Fold this sequence. Notes:
With about 210 residues, the chain is an all-alpha fold. It has helices at about 1-15, 15-25, 40-45, 50-70, 80-105, 105-110, 120-130, 135-165, 190-210; strands at about 170, 175.
Amino acid sequence: MSARISNNTDKKAEPxxxxxxxxxxxxxxxxxxxxxxxxxxxxxxxxxxxxxxMGLATAFVLLMSNILVASLRNFIPKQVRIASFILIIATxxxxxxxxxxxxxxxxxxxxxxxxxxxxxxxxxxxxxxAFASKNTIGxxxxxxxxxxxxxxxxxxxxxxxRELLGNGSLFDVAIFPESFQEWIIMILPAGGFFTLALWxxxxxxxxxxxxKG
Length: 213
């Protein structure tokens, strides 16, 4: 009887696919909670367009890598799993690199070497190792979608604020009147740290407020 109750409890405690998706948006947001992938977050979030493009590129690589790692998890030997994960991630990064270059050469120049550095993005490698290699394809897809959307959202938040205050525009469309004094520092590296710090304060404020009910 007690064993049956224990089994039922284990089944109820197992997160659903929806939970796997939602955790990346809020509870385990890769930027605002786990503070992962800081190089692209700080370096290419000087405009909303750059931030959105890098976020989508990373999310695509994360999704496709999770699918392939979950599909091959029973065939990849444990001794070479990290090397295999990096090879899988590098394949999709190459696809993204050529795709962005084909769509917009200027955007490719703006993102620079950070497209290639997606290969060593700790967010993607950690999801492959900690989740996709231990779970089904369906759950790995939901995990990647949640983390990917959470990452895109965080980058866009930073890019939008930095472009608004640094250039007075959003997606190159002027928002403020000509009399607006642009804060040049916001589009410089220091502005990335300031903006990230402000968003972390805001995010943690609402997280604590929600926890207190």
